[in-house]
Amino acid sequence: MVQPDMLDQPGRDGPPPAAGAPSGRAMRLGRRFAGVALSLVLTLLGLLLVTFVIGRIMPIDPVLKVVGERATQAQYDAAYQAMGLDKPIWQQFLRYMAEVLRGDFGRSISTGHAVAQDLRRVFPATLELATLGTMIGVLVGVPLGVVAAARRGGWIDQVARVVALVGYSMPIFWLGLMGLLLFYGILGWVGGPGRQGIVYDGMVPTVTGLILVDSLVAGDWAAFRDAFSHIVLPAGLLGYFSLAYISRMTRSFMLEQLSAEYVVTARVKGLSERRVIWGHAFRNILVPLVTVIALSFGSLLEGSVLTEIVFSWPGIGQYITKALLAGDMNAVLGGTVVVGTCFVALNLLSDILYRLLDPRAT
Amino acid sequence: MQNRFPLRALMLASAVALAPAGAAWAETPADTLVIAHQIDDIISLDPGQSFEFSGQDVVRNLYDRLVDIDPLDLAAGIKPSLAESWEVSEDGKTITLTMREGVKFHSGNPVRAEDAAWSLQRAVKLNKSPAFILNQFGFTAENVDERVTFDGNRLVLQLDQPYAQSYVLNCLASEVGSVVDKETVMAHAEGEDFGNAWLSTNDAGSGPFTLATWRPNEAVQLTANPDYWQGAPALARVIVRHVQESSAQRLLLEQGDVDVARNLTPTDVEGIAGNDRLKVMDELRGRILYMGLSQKDPLLSRPEMVEAMKYLIDYAGMESSFLKGQWKVHQNFLPEGYLGASDENPWTHDIEKARQILTDAGITSGTVRTIVRDIREYVDAAQTLQAAMAQVGLTLEIQQMTGAQVLDAYRARQVPVFIGEWGPDYADPHTNASTFAHNPNNADDAGLSQLAWRNSWAVPDEMNRAVEAATLEGDTDKRVQMYLDIQSQYREIAPIIPMFQKIEQVAMQQNVQNWTSGGSVSSVLYRQVTKE
Amino acid sequence: MTRTTRAWLLSDAPQTRRQARLGALYQGWLTFRANRLAMVGLAILVLLVLVAGFAPWIAPQNPYAQNLAQRLQPPSAQHWLGTDALGRDILSRLIFGSRITLFIVGTVALIAPVIGLFVGTVAGFAGGWVDQVLMRITDIFLAFPKLILALAFVAALGPGIGNAVLALAITSWPPYARLARAETLTIRRADYIAAARLQGAGPLRLLIGHVWPLCVSSLIVRVALDMAGIILSAAGLGFLGLGAQPPMPEWGAMISDGRSYILDFWWVAAMPGLAIFVVSLAFNLLGDGLRDVLDPRGGRE
Q1: Looking at beta carbons, which residues of chain A come within 8 Å of B217?
Q2: B329 and B459 in one domain?
Q3: Is the dihedral of CA A22, A23, A26, A29 positive or negative?
Q4: CB atoms < 10 A from the CB of B438, how many?
Q5: Does residue B410 sit in the same domain as residue B480?
Q6: Cβ of residue C274 closer than 8 Å to a chain B Cβ
Q7: β partners of residue B398
Q8: The pLDDT of residue B449
Q9: What CDD domains is this protein classified in (chain A) (predicted)?
Q10: Can you tell me the ipTM of this complex?
């Protein structure tokens, strides 16, 4: 259900920044950087505050998870105080902020581990999946979108449209379970649920937490093949959803360019269709396209809870959801900070690319 | 189900056409037992804190207790373990246990009476969820250092009442009675936590397995302890993988990627029936599926209403459909396998009788609310009840919530109709008697944890006293009779209605031998499991 | 429609403002009608509305009637789409469920874009610190894991289909706000806005009278394209047990129920899945068609 957000089109967002005189440029850049940094900090701070408030107003009692079903009122009260819940909210928030600044996300009550330790484990799992998924989405989606636009109304366009529509409209858990049944249960082409086969579990030393990378670092080809066979199906599934989005957006950007005057001029000048499309029009859609890809990547980094459940994938989506339902706010806050930071960073990156690539913004 | 659409057959046919090699059937390593299970409930592996089903499964295999129950020989009852023998004083209030010599913790430290005493003191002082099991004998954080002492290789427990020996030993055999390695744990203590933070994710036991890793919501890995005093386990490694979905567990099992799958739904169990590489083991567990009717509700507090509800439940219908093979009708609060259990199941689904009872009492309409946890069986049971109640003019409003929210409302005595499970805390009948049939204070602010209190049921004094007396009865036969009497009276009047007892259906490869989930009184044990 | 009306609508020189507007609408309709796929989408949705409206008369059986003896029956003459785990007729449940689907879609489509439109246009039109503050808030909501936000809202408000829908609406406005702001920024400096301002129109009037109408078209397109996502999100909440309450036949909850039977009794999950698919598809087709009509930048030939 965490589908790429098709409404977002920051490529069109805001007017291109005005060109400045060279003399004031360094200063302006510096100021812009400070502005970006400030807004980044503000966004993160706001994110934390909102999460914190949600945690406190939510009628899920975190103490229950700690003391369990059989606790007496006295045990409950003791735990309530130990968790600092008797203090006013603002004090709790300040205390939490002070701890976060020291790099301490606290301990998760639903896993018994330090939140930072949990995140180091679950985030790479999601990152690996999201990266591969986005790669599939880009490698297939972009060419598909370009060709669909170039041959508008042709059969490729129709196929691309159907592929995308199906991608938008399929419940992911249904597709996931069916995929498992067919490719794993019946054909045996891919690995089953989980990140690794049992034989390889814990065999590759953890460096990055990305098993594909770690097994390559260790030079363990068998482990790499095993990990790949496990990731290919869920990544393919996420890739399909991201493909649907990316191909539609690519097509729409391309159509806009192809109807522009310079394309007409280029055609009149007798440039080959190939050069018109790839050399001119495509180059011009790079900027919004990068933004779209970054956003789609960002939404996959949130972790697709349903995909993770179906494929027993120990990712951040499942982690945060489970924590939330248990009222485990340390874990939720930590997870939100990581996801939020990624989002802000991706936003920033596409912003920089915007300025670098866009011919109008010098 | 014979006439279902041949989807799998169709897919299989296309698969054969597509894949010349066909599906490869994997096999797990010969010295490793791989289990697919839902283990996301574990929040701690500290025996002084662990109180979740899957957490106890792990703790049981990492630690030894003073006395224990052998899951493969449940009839034998309590057996010596780290304590070789024990004796009870004349007045029945002092128990002296003699420790076995030569047993070592995983760290290499010897297991001493000092460790045993410290473990019990620690559990009481930590005062986490399972502490009440020990506190029943009069221990408190203040007095436990005097009440639990050691002398050489002897451990001395001083109780506040002459409790039945079986009762005390049954409690010591529960996970909270595990003996932990004092030196190792204290080396990791932070402040006043008795090493709780460290022990939550590490092990300091003497049991048949050591903890290799625990990755929450992902996997638990155990490694065999080759020097185990009762002999090294047959298998070198046990890996428990968290697999949420039954379908996924089944696929893993069918592909040979796991040896055991523990959370298959009834339909998935049926689905693998024809597979001759697999087998299914049924094991009666201690959990009771019950319905609580809050006596705060004006309608539900009428005795006729309680009586009618007992006839509105479609016991047989549920048992043969969505609960098939995994729950059996059981209308008593003591599960089969417990001392004093009763097998009398007097109620059947009888709409006419229920209607008669209600009409005689002048009840022809009414609305009640139920808050159920978002677990398939509970929601289906609630819907079945909803349909039955509709037939006699009653409306049941179903509200589905997450576990934490339901518990929150239940603790606040705000659930009119509760449908859910109760799992016994230790192997003695008092564990269920004390919660279903005991409520010393029915006041709103009493803040008790008994089910009777949560359903606002003022248990008659006579029954309260009977439950208390049963813990002091030294003669086991008399004790059994006392529980049978309590249950017989309970069936007449109680608004908390036991309906089913859990049967765990464990699906496994044919070569897995000696599996046990722990029966109704214990948890899983891996030591004796072999693969041929 | 008579020839004269048609001519009046398509007139090159409309006499009144009303004629011009209606003419533009009619032009749009003609473009839309030429798009066969979009028409298919529209037809499906009209059908959906009819089915929802006449559910009690169309449904062959009571959607709540249980029969444990008849559970998990495959599609047959008696139960066209089979029965579910409690022996209820899946077709009847789907038919009644269409009402819930329409409710979800309708409510979210009303709330989210309106909040987004308001926030986005105000931010874009006012500029300065108002813009900064509003956009920071939007960013915070955007950076928040969406499902988590929705879950938190549902948990806070209590489970139930109404609250689930509200949560979805509250979490899905930020992208609309961004879109509306972008549109506003391009409109803001347009000559006719300056002209209106010179005529003494206040900022509120400019916003409501001149900015909003221009933003609405692109928002409508996005909403239509986004509908599929909303149905699926509601289904996702149902999957986690936080959507519709039993025994409501919400499609997402039905799939979620059916997933435990997916390996042997595929129709229990597949039928509602198919229903969601068809309706989502219809919304997407409609959205595509609308884009061609309303959003000229989508490229019209």
Answers
A1: 111, 314, 318-319, 322
A2: yes
A3: negative
A4: 22
A5: yes
A6: no
A7: B370
A8: 84
A9: TM_PBP2 (cd06261)
A10: 0.82
